[in-house]
Amino acid sequence: MPQTTRAQQRERTRRTLLDVSRELFASQGYAAVGLAEIVEAADVTKGALYHHFASKAALFRAVLTEVQEEVGERVAAAAEERKDPWERLAAGCQEFITAATHPDIQRIMLIDGPAVLGWHEWRAMDESSSARHLAEQLGDLVERGVIAPQPVIPLAHLLSGAMNEAALWLAASGSADDLADTRAALSRMLGALRTH
């Protein structure tokens, strides 16, 4: 029984560190947050932090992983509500744009993610979380003849890059109409891929 209690306490500490760090990284940005601030807000020692995470960057990586998983779950849920394969793709892409407009997600996933971890590691994480699913959807549509035959991987990267860039632009946007305009532009861009 005591081991279970210790294991539960370790998991609670880890969860608290992740939650507190996510809030601080989202509100202040990675560079502005120090480990002392994190452990104080989490009410743990630096030793407890280092027991779970080797560094501030490792803690950030864990937070980013959770954010990417949450966005991926939202995209998948939106896509799964549709029966038609084309509509699944369109709904998933639109949900990504909508989810990525949340300031916390923008800061952690799109701004600090590549800056903190480096472009190659960030791309690898993005690839394993959402880009792979996008490529699978596009591949299915090519096989069905809904999209003209073409290499899927470059298309997936182009579409993913366009959506990430649009999300970053929306972060700096001052107009309430910009999200609707971006969603409409995305719909037109996707529509241009259809063969029928």
Automatic annotation (TrEMBL):
Which superkingdom does the taxonomy of this entry point to?
Answer: Bacteria
Q: Which UniProt keywords apply?
A: DNA-binding, Transcription, Transcription regulation
Query: What are the transmembrane regions?
Result: none
- HTH tetR-type domain boundaries: 11-71
Q: Which residues form the signal peptide?
A: none
Annotated DNA-binding residue span(s): 34-53
Task: Identify the InterPro entries for this entry.
Answer: Homeodomain-like_sf, HTH-type_TetR-like_transc_reg, HTH_TetR, Rv0078-like_C
Xref: Gene3D superfamilies: Tetracycline Repressor, domain 2 (1.10.357.10)
What is the protein name stated in its UniProt record? TetR/AcrR family transcriptional regulator
**Species:** Streptomyces amakusaensis
